[in-house]
Amino acid sequence: MRTLPITLPFFNALRVVALLGLSQSALLAQAQTFKIDCDAEASIPLMDKKLTPAKITIELQNIGRHVYFNVVGPADYQMRVSSLITEQYLGANLTTDARLGAHKKNKTSGRENQITIDRESVAYAGYNDTDYQGKSVRILYDGKCKLPKP
Fold this sequence. Notes:
alpha+beta
């Protein structure tokens, strides 16, 4: 079987063009992360316990119709919530004109977590079902956030 001499260079050039195109589309799919700092408080009503207040950062992303929240701070305050629906989780986008938010439920364990941020007051509220000192509890969160300076 005889091949044309331009075959190999042609396919190498085609491969480079395809890779460049894919890398550009991958850049377009990435969402910008918006970060806000908050002074947060937490409590566990089941144990009648207040946790030590903490400074946290909430990272928000919006990709298509899905919202993603990542709370960064002390261990008891950390959580990830998204509106994404997967085999393991049921997510819901709680965003309205008045607030940003998401809710997530583990289909197997039934554990839930939720976060909302009021658009006007920038108040933060949420909850997270987790293990605390060997017990399955719901930790409630609230606090005040500050928008970053432009």
